Amino acid sequence: MRRPGDPYDVVVVGGGMAGLTAAHHAALRGMSVACIDESGHMGGLVMNVSNIDGYPAMGTVSGAELAAGQLEAILELGVEIVPDTATGLSVDGDVKVVATGMGDQQAKHVVLASGARLKKLGVPGEEAFFGRGVSQCADCDAGFFVDQKVVVVGGGDSALQEALHLAGYASEIVLVTRGNGLCARQSYVSCAAGNPKFSFRWETEVSEVLGGDGVEKVRLTPAGGGDGEDLDCNGVFVFVGLEPNVEFLPSEIERDGGGFVKTDSSFKSGVDGVYAVGAVRAGYSGQLASAAGEAASVVAMLPMD
Fold first, then answer.
1. pLDDT given at position 5
2. Which of 25, 54, 72, 255 satisfies CB 3.0 to 4.6 Å to 299 for a cystine?
3. Torsion 75-81-244-298 (CA) sign
């Protein structure tokens, strides 16, 4: 049993599915565990998903339901939740120190599962209209666009999954992507292609969001450059990839060109005793089951001191 003031066996940074799984498996091994998550509610981006695909669960389950079950399990096992943001990571001998606003959390091992956040377009009007027609959560906001025309930006799994959810509410969905095709799983592509509500704008970018009290149109520009055109719409949903939550990490932890943490095949970072799993890691597959599998694998390899 951990005594007050002693380092935890494991500190997990992040409360998404990778973090919850790591905390769960570490606690099952009898380790003392703290899990740092700024919200304290846990779940990460999966909380915005109404119907989980590709995860070994019984029947249909939402992201919120899945996360709630995992959170209940780790609390029963004695995992301590630190509802704060990690602001730094340092090494003091054999002890790793994760800084938070609530104080330093010391550990023998650190599992980085801080995940990633949805990228924004970074175009004029996007921030001004966020929450007034611009969104990154169809499950949250689809009900505001009943019988209206919306634009979905992106061509991957997230964009298609969210667009298909919107199809139950909106009257028309224009999917805008920089590529000349979609890079989502075939089941999503087939559903969208067979739905008369969908139209597609290939090799096109949204270069500005325009409106008054709310979104009224977007400016579309050819991806290769050229004159733009305005497209009337009532909402814009942006799903153009992810950027990792790594601002708190020291330079000793190597990252790739996108900022994702580099690891070896055992998920070890360049700092001894620090591991990275899930969406924060370079090479992550993007599958929820993979995030859980990586987390379980890392914890299974940790030495019992």
1. 73
2. 25
3. negative
